[in-house]
């Protein structure tokens, strides 16, 4: 993995160490256990502002959900850069994507691809991952989507 290329792609996408959101409660943004780093839930927040609030399928379109997932994934990468540095990670393991939707909406994989595509775009092969997608009743601040992730730390 070319770390400088990753940092450049991350910075050109607008995410810097100073712009990643802090935790919204009594937890840390990144928790390391052994050689695995767990990144806490990230929302589609840019410059302190939540984007794409509402339920997918009514207030938020699938395309907007895709964009929201990309922003949340950028925040995951921003947290990794801030707390670990890309030179210290081997790769992405798994992501969990949480979303809220209206009853008839059934395009969660398409929206979730926003995060998956972003990880592959920025990290290359190190961005290959497994994922789960879970519909929930509500997310904080009525966000439509959120992403958590785990990374293997290089030995």
Description of the structure:
By secondary structure, this protein is α+β, with helices and mostly antiparallel strands. It has a single domain (3-153), classed as 60s Ribosomal Protein L30, Chain: A, CATH 3.30.1330. Helix content is 31%, strand content 26%. It has helices spanning 3-12, 62-83, 108-123, and strands at residues 30-33, 36-42, 45-46, 49-50, 89-99, 130-135, 145-153. The strands form two sheets. Strands 1-2-7-5-6 form a five-stranded mixed sheet. Strands 3-4 form a two-stranded antiparallel sheet. A hairpin with a 2-residue loop joins β3 (45-46) and β4 (49-50). It is globular. The mean pLDDT is 92.
CATH architecture label name: 2-Layer Sandwich
The Cα radius of gyration reads 15 Å
Major β-sheet strand ordering: 1-2-7-5-6
CATH superfamily: RutC-like
Low-confidence parts, pLDDT < 50 over ≥5 residues? none
Strand residue percentage: 25-35%
Number of helices: 3
Binned, the helix content reads 25-40%
**CATH class annotation:** Alpha Beta
Which outline best applies?
globular
State mean pLDDT (0 to 100 scale).
Answer: 92
Termini separation (Å)?
Answer: 14 Å
Based on secondary structure, the structural category is alpha+beta
Total E-strand runs: 7
Order of helical and strand elements: HEEEEHEHEE
Main beta sheet: strand number and arrangement?
Answer: 5 strands, mixed
Structurally, how many domains make up the residues?
1
CATH topology: 60s Ribosomal Protein L30, Chain: A
